[in-house]
Amino acid sequence: MKKIGIVFLSFILLVILISCNRPLKKYYDTGELEQEIRLENDTILAYITNFYKNGHIKSEGNYVLNNGVWVAHGRLKGYYRDGQIWYDCLFKKGMPVLLEQRSLYEKTPIDIDIPTDTFVKKNTNAYYCRFFIKNIYPDYYNIRVLDTLNRLLPVSLNKADSLLYPYILPVEPLVIHKKTSKELGVIKIVVLFPDENNVINPREPKYKQIIEFPVICN
Predict the structure, then answer these.
(1) DSSP string, 60-73
(2) What pLDDT is stored for residue 47 in this prediction?
(3) Is the CB of residue 144 less than 8 Å from the CB of residue 153?
(4) Consecutive 10-residue runs of the chain (218 residues): their mean pLDDT?
(5) d(CA 203, CA 141)
(6) Span 5-97 CATH architecture
(7) Which helix (H) or strand (E) holds 104?
(8) Residue ranges per structural domain of the chain
(9) What is the 3-state secondary structure (H, E, C) of 149-210?
């Protein structure tokens, strides 16, 4: 997983901003607000909000200065381009904290909050997926699809539109349980969690949880 970082503009500039008590703002070349940095009590902590060009918030949360670079440290929220929430989880010096390890080791159920706008859509012959699972950073490496033969199939990244439907699912795992005229069925997503050594083994995961998502034709 890549570190989430924002390049530190200048230590001197930050000192000036603190004295003025004004947020640092950065704009796109076309004039829209791109980023706003609000400094905390000292120069190594900040609350940073990033924006899409359409004005929607892209991400917001706490950052800490680490070797001249702003990295997420604390709770960070991210949003899809249309404003729907993408992730809401904890970071530690730029890296997501995957989950409360204690719950995993005790083999207790993980409390996963899934909103109603979480879904998969079918377009031509592909299934595009987006979802929000509270306290889990949606890295494609720890997301799998369960097919009818109980095989864990990997998802691929949707490079054409990664900010709205970031994942492409294989067609094979579609399981038909039609409930309404608009639904095609249900796809079972499997979230893999790290073991005691903070390692994820995709072939033989020690901890996993299965979630069902409706499939909507679009």
Answers:
(1) EEEEEEETTEEEEE
(2) 95
(3) yes
(4) 44 48 88 93 85 96 91 93 88 77 50 61 74 75 76 84 85 65 72 71 74 72
(5) 12
(6) Single Sheet (2.20)
(7) helix 101-105
(8) 5-97, 106-217
(9) CCCEEECEECCCCCCCCCEEECCCCCECCCCCCCEEEEEEEEEEECCCCCCCCCCCCCEEEE
Q: The tokens of 39 are what?
A: 């400094």
DSSP H/E element including 139: none
- Structure token digits, residue 198: 């903070």
Q: Given this model, what pLDDT does residue 205 score?
A: 74
* Beta pairing, strands 119-123 & 207-217: parallel
DSSP-derived secondary structure letter, 42: S
The values of phi and psi at residue 202, to 5°, are -60, -30
Q: Which residues pair with 45 in a beta bridge?
A: 64
Structure tokens at 63: 């950052």
CA-only gyration radius of the chain, Å: 20
14: enclosing H helix or E strand? helix 11-20
> Of all residues in the chain, what percent are helix, strand and coil, respectively (each to 5)?
10, 45, 45
Distance of CA 31 to the CA centre of its chain: 27
**Cα first-last separation, the chain:** 31
